[in-house]
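re: that chain from earlier
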Amino acid sequence: MKLYIHSGNAVEIYESKQGETIDQLQKALGSEIIFNNRTILNTSMLVNSFFNDNDDVIVQKVKPIPVQQNVQVAAQKPIHYNNITKFAFWDADDMNVRVVVELKDIAKHPLEKFQARFFERSFEIKIHDYQNKNWTFGVARTQCKLDAANSKFTLKGDKILITLRKIKKEDNWFSIHKQKTIGGDDSD
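^ sequence. v structure.
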């Protein structure tokens, strides 16, 4: 297959080998190829499957941008979280479940150091830099579904007060974690 390779004002004819991939073609040319003003993303394709057989194809040779070799990127350390396992909860009323987590002087901790996420069947609260550690508290699968948009947390003294808004009045939260019950339905 014959290809016309355009690089600036110069044009060279390139004979593609049978079974050659776009990646091999780019390596042979020493540059990335742009076809119809688009970068070819799947470079493992065969040249003859990308272009029609025996076509004369015009491609542009793009000069690679030189990369500085001495640039060092600081590796981001993964954030480690300690799990909070001590908490209290109760089915507060028809529409709310309350969860209390006690941590000394937590209300004095800056609010921007908290992250809260509520979903249909789970929630998570992350606390950054509290007593020089990162903490997390959450439930991966709650007993019943939550109204995530109306669930919230507040800080008061030594406590994080979490209000989980129920979807249904009749939901009974005998556990904060989803429990299988005899004859119960595990589908929701």
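The CA atoms of residues 122 and 140 lie 5 Å apart.
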